[in-house]
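hey all, quick one before standup. I had two proteins in the batch that finished overnight and I want to keep them in one place so we stop losing track of which output belongs to which input. First protein below, input sequence then structure tokens straight from the run.
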Amino acid sequence: PGEMASLLCNCVRSSGLRAGQPAREMATLKEISNRLRSVKNIQKITKSMKMVSAAKFARAERDLKPARAFGSGANVLYDRVQSDVPEKVEGGQNVMLVLSSDRGLCG
């Protein structure tokens, strides 16, 4: 009821004539209630979309958690690697080949 009265007051205020604008009729109670219903439906849809998004995000984080150990292990390996990389040949590319064990970067 409070929202309806507020919306009705806004409609009455906005129905005034302004220079350069055509006259418009005041909204009926049925139009206002339809508008309120559609706004509430849009709010429900938005809320459900947020919930779906949050669930997908949580699942992606959960799936990513075990892979972080491998990423941090690879970073440690790359930080510790010692190599004498010759100067880059003009027009060529440097390639670094890293060899390690197949036991999860443990050895």
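OK second protein, same deal, sequence then tokens:
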Amino acid sequence: MIVGNKALSALFLLAASASSTQAFVPSASASASASNGVRQTASSSSSQLFSTIERVKVSPPPTVTGDDAAALFEDHVQKTYGRYPITLVSGKGCNLYDSDGKEYLDFVSGIATCALGHSNPELTAAVSAQMEQFHHISNLYFNTQQAQLATWLTDNSCADKVFFCNSGAEANEGAIKLARKHANDRGIDCPVIITAIQSFHGRTLTALTATAQPKYHAGFTYGGEMVPGFEYVPYNDIEALKAKVEEINTTPDAQGRKRGLAAILMEPLQGEGGIIPGNPEFFKAARQLADDSGALLMCDEVQIGMGRSGHLWGHQKLGVEPDVFTSAKALGGGVPIGAMMARGAAADVLTPGTHASTYGGNPLACAAGVAVAKYMADNDLLDNVEARGEQIAAGLVKIAEKYPNILGEVRGWGLLRGVVVKDDAGCTAGELVGDVMKEGLLLVPAGPSVVRFVPPLIVNEAQIDQALEMFEEAVAKRA
């Protein structure tokens, strides 16, 4: 190891010495490769190091057109998404435009994120003004934008305090850490969090463990196991939940350590799991079981929250108040921001040094959040969500009745609606979404058998009618 470090230091000194006297001269083979624009692929470590040292000057970003984007994605972007073959270049309101100039009615909203649509003047003005002032400072200091958004969130919910981060997964990670610390503070050695089968809580490792869908766990286990401390029950199954809580609270772990319920974490409406609304009785039972166990009830509001249900928060439709709930997506109208909110004693569990976020609550993201909040209040957006949601649901029911061999149940709340594609329909939800895209409507699947409608919260009556017409045209071609 000492020899290796000395050799590496010598190489760096050689490079520094060469640069101080004359240009570092590459080998003939390297020069030929560089002149032909060929990336160095030599297997020796010295060649790789040489190639790294040689790149002293930073190149500017390339100019990219709509025609170039797909090929550049293929070469330079990791393939974590299956993408539809269009390159979007601009948007206005509920419409998006591709590189060929084709117009699309956007009923995806960046997956429930662009609550105010695209290029919203108020949001644009707020973000632009904040950039001219300052956009980021450390959380070592106070800033007025974070204080303003936190106050609005607590004024409009059961929460007492807010922790800001950057995404829904991070917000849920924060909630999980809070629940574990709360349980540890009560003397529980092995705190357990219950989540629902077919849930979705994010892509980070612990949030993914909370996501009770084995297909997302494949390839990420250690010895076949994900992060310990999670148990799963069927969504809306009160008896299964009661039994699981009893088991956790009375059964020690394999080493004889004390187990106990830390939290019950549920989505008020399962989004990625197929647009399945929560049952009020189930959530009331969860609230009581958490209280009886000294545990926390936590709600993942990342997709259904910020007005998409017709209420500001999805749990308001279920008649319960959680101890902790999370938000992201629509909170910034498309500007990345997440929030984990807590009330009562839960709001004081995390202390300096126990949790943090570099970007969380930065002035730029919070200015966007304040702009979204102000627009929602000034324009009675929740009333529009209720009316337009009922319009979508009624229209989808009519189409499903007309094509019963293809479509089944219509479900959801507000402007998060789904329609089931039947198993023998001859197509998956994803394939039907591809068909509809050809008609000029953007939709998104929720699992393999549900087509999801998540338009911006500003969508109007005429646009709903247009979307339903295009959807029916695509379904008719499959009939």
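Flagging for whoever picks this up: The first strand starts at residue 88 and ends at 92. Confidence is low (pLDDT under 50) at residues 1-45.
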